[in-house]
Amino acid sequence: MTDKYAVLGSPIQHSLSPKIHNLVFSRLSSSASYESFEVQDNLAQFLADKPDYAGFSLTMPLKDQAFELATSLSPLAAKTRSANTLLRTKDGYKGFNTDVFGIQKAVSHKPQEVAVLGSGATARSALAAFDGARKVIYARNQELAAELAKEFDATVVSLADALSKELVISTLPKGVLPELIPTGEPLQSVLDVAYTNPEIPAERYISGLEMLIHQAIYQQRIFNFADEETVLRNEPELIEELFELLLVAK
User: Fold this and answer.
1) Which residue in the list 4, 19, 50, 63 is annotated as catalytic?
2) 133 in the same domain as 145
3) Residues 31 and 67 in one domain
4) Which residues pair with 156 in a beta bridge?
5) Rounded to the nearest 5°, which phi and psi values hold at 229?
6) In this structure, what CATH number is given to the domain that contains residue 220?
7) Catalytic (active site) residue 63
């Protein structure tokens, strides 16, 4: 029987995940398939209606729901209270968080100071990705920002202070970050998770596509081996091909 997987979220029509995962399955000579479904709420009912699927990727706004529905969790999913990957097991679904890995790989170094913009599930992953760094957070929801700051040893700051830091990670929705950056004031380094935004002025700009590719590779490890540690066959070549496919043609 062919294993079936899918990405769930809303809006989902422009998701690049099917292109990424189907390419990887093809290169691994796997007969597995991967598609997308528009799911905004009631994730539990959707999962119940899809008993023939082996696993799912979760994007906005379902990562919190996936965390709550999982019957077991990876350490990172538990730490961040967020699951962007569900793998069917005999006891239900195990929840994983590959966003943390995706962020770490996309940044590719250990910054001394990190500013996280936003207060949702991906913001929690960004805060968890850099233990040991000085972390600050800016969010419009000041109450939630304060809770996350306490949980992840960070400090709530103003937008201007956040934008001045060595590395800025924006987990804000599409279209928000470009409106917040003052004209003519480039950032030092920025990772914009919303990869559909225009490129943000910065000394080093990291596209959210890089995070997307790396977190998907870790999802493929989970889909193929049920853990994040077992490396895929020819993994460096797979990553290079995905970079050429998505980043060159973006």
Assistant:
1) 63
2) yes
3) yes
4) 137
5) -95, -30
6) 3.40.50.10860
7) yes
- Tokens at 23, concatenated: 């390419």
Total count of domains within the chain: 2
5: β partners: 34, 55
Distance, C-alpha 149 to centroid of its chain: 20
108, 202: one domain: yes
Is residue 157 domain-shared with residue 199, that is, in the same domain? Answer: yes
Structure pTM? 0.94
Asked whether residue 40 falls in the same domain as residue 85, the answer is yes
Q: Which domain holds residue 32?
A: 4-97+210-246
Q: How far apart are the C-alpha atoms of 91 and 75, rounded to whole Å?
A: 18
- Tell me the HSE value of 200 on the side-chain side, using a 13 A CA sphere: 33
- Do 11 and 80 fall into the same domain? yes
Residue 38 β-bridge partners: 9
Residue-wise pLDDT tens digits, 37-93: 999 989 999 999 999 999 999 999 999 999 999 999 999 999 999 999 999 999 999
Give the chain's length: 250
The DSSP secondary-structure symbol of 229 reads S
| DSSP secondary structure, 126-195, as one string | HHHT-TTSEEEEE-S-HHHHHHHHHHTTEEE--HHHHHTSSEEEE-PPTTTHHHHSPTT--EEEEEES-T
CATH code where residue 123 lies: 3.40.50.720
Sheet holding 167-170, edge to edge: 154-156, 134-138, 113-117, 167-170, 187-192, 202-207
